[in-house]
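Lines hold sequence, tokenised fold; shown next:
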Amino acid sequence: MNTRSARKLLLTVSIGAASVFALQGCGESPPEQGTTPAPSASDFPSAKGQSIEDLTSKAEPSSFNLAPAGQVFSTGKTRYSFAVLDESGFQVNDKEVALYLTRGPRDRVIGPFPASVESLVTDPSFRAQTTSQDPRAAKAVYVISDLSLPTAGSWFVLAFIKTGTGFEAAQLPTIKASKESTVAQIGEPAPKVHTPVPADVGGDISKIDTRIPADSMHQSDLADVLGKKPVVLLFSTPALCESRVCGPVVDIQAQVAEETGDEVEFIHSEIYNDNDANKGVRPPVKAFGLPTEPWVFAIDKNGVVRDQIEGAFGIEELRRVVDKASSQ
């Protein structure tokens, strides 16, 4: 790629904080359950001594669109997840991708940060109608568990995608890194807030769960179990979520809850009052300070948040969350 083309690509950065998968269909068979490990960083160009323009000149412009799955990022090591979509909007799950970051065109570049691929596919018995009948439901997510954001502020993101002959480059929306967040933080006590149970709605679980069929993770009120046993708390609204990942992650939590047993309490809390997006968010969403969905929190038996994930996650990731909740 010549320098002029590289500059043109750099100028196409989307400043908006896109936080959803803009999926339009399923262009390939669903991936198997589990994780596809990240490629080696050595498989991608070194960032040492390179400007972002230097790096961009080593790749061809990509026809793929990369869509972030979250928008809340803190300084230090952070999790970053995204989808890869082809020109028709179909999800692509078999690419080797790494990200590079820079504060600006003249600043140093850090990276590469290779991404693993986490499957969102569950066993059929845990796959709700909300998921299986949604042609746009996400099937996998690319994840970088240790993306480095050394300082607060804006970070420009460049993706390198391996091809048979080299690399393609694509921009992602700018990351806004913050030292502080409204979201309940790791190491802090979880908010003691009531989550609705069937008795609160006269046994009509459809009033507190948009999943079809409703799941069984509404039996315990967070306020009753907090500080007594480990809790994995998921905020997600399968029928109303624009990102198309809320249904799959509830399915994933249902499967992991079944295999874990009663030693950990699994709670699914919906987002909107009366399951109506026009009526505002429920009190637990406000208490945990959530600006997006879905979110999952690992809370230990002492009521302390031990882990959190924004956006899509796979079964293996949730199993690790469960371990953090129960290991204290």
Summary: Confidence is low (pLDDT under 50) at residues 1-30.
